[in-house]
Specification:
The complex is a heterodimer of chains A (151) and B (116).
Chain A (H helix, E strand, L loop, with lengths): L4 H4 L1 H53 L3 E8 L6 E7 L5 E8 L2 E2 L1 E2 L3 E3 L4 E7 L7 E8 L4 E7 L2
Antiparallel strand pairs in A: 1-2, 2-7, 3-4, 3-6, 3-8, 5-7, 8-9
Chain B lengths: L1 H29 L2 E8 L3 E8 L5 E9 L4 E10 L4 E7 L8 E7 L4 E6 L1
Antiparallel strand pairs in B: 1-2, 2-5, 3-4, 3-6, 6-7
Classes of the chains: A alpha+beta (151), B alpha+beta (116).
């Protein structure tokens, strides 16, 4: 005579089912904890990266210092030569030069490394005895502007 | 928690950097170097400077600006606070026409002297 454990041992079957249910609950708990951890780590990583990027831009912008050492209205070449010196703590890239609020052509690309200086040659026409407003703009948006009178 | 610490460090670094740049600007504004005299020798030109600021001034350039030429000479001279010093640059011969002598400090200040 054969015995069926399924029908004859109802208590065992019930116990196994209960155990299985319990195990399922445990898996859900671990998964939810893991998911929460991943989401939290991802969010905080994103926040850290965003903070780093934003503050790096801020830090670079506030570290720019540019000095106009000399402005030469050059009779020989007909250009306006501006001697720029980088006294800040980041490299500087000059993006635009305006003479009397008009954009001018200059020797691009013009970059100044830390503690370096160089001539910026601006192809702008000028007349003797006139006053010119020269504005040098960097790629980070800093303006070095002043009035200069030609000799 | 680690991210919070990192964000705090990054933001703190920005404040520290801002403080350093403000300090740099204050020193630059308070730096006061004047040219009190310029004379020529057989070897070149001698510029007499006075530092009236509480900071040591580092002279990095000497400009000779004439009517037809603007020439920059690299200089490396330090002047202590309250001190009067002479900066000598050999092989510089001043032109006859009206000219301007300029010196530039490392902080970016410029002192100008007009020679008649």
């Amino acid at each position: 005579m054969s015995h069926c454990g399924f029908c004859c041992n109802g208590g065992l079957w019930k116990m196994q089912l209960t155990k299985a249910f319990r195990e399922k609950r445990a898996v859900t708990s671990v998964l939810s904890s893991l998911l929460l951890t991943i989401v939290a780590v991802a969010a905080m990583s994103l926040a850290t990266a965003a903070t780093y990027v934003i503050t790096t831009n801020m830090r670079e912008s506030m570290s720019e210092r540019l000095v106009v050492e000399d402005v030469w209205f050059n009779k020989h070449t007909g250009t306006i030569d501006i001697y720029l010196s980088n006294t800040g703590k980041v490299a500087v890239h000059v993006s635009n030069v305006y003479v009397n609020h008009s954009a001018q052509v200059f020797n691009t690309p013009f970059q100044l490394a830390l503690s370096s200086s160089s001539w910026l040659h601006v192809n702008a026409s000028w007349n003797t005895g006139d006053l010119y407003y020269i504005d040098v703009v960097t790629s980070r948006g800093m303006h070095i502007a002043s009035y200069y009178k030609t000799p | 928690m680690l991210s919070l610490v990192l964000v705090t460090i990054i933001v703190g670094n920005v404040f520290l950097w801002n403080f350093q740049m403000n300090q740099f600007d204050v020193e630059r504004l308070r730096e006061d170097v004047k040219i009190t005299g310029v004379f020529t020798t057989t070897e070149g030109v001698v510029v007499t400077l006075t530092n009236n600021s509480p900071y040591t001034a580092h002279i990095v350039a000497l400009w000779v600006v004439g009517e037809d030429n603007h020439t920059r000479y690299a200089v490396n001279a330090y002047i202590s606070p309250g001190e009067e010093a002479q900066v000598e640059q050999n092989n510089v011969f001043l032109p006859e026409d009206p000219l301007i002598i300029k010196i530039v400090t490392e902080r970016g200040n410029i002192a100008v002297y007009a020679c008649s």
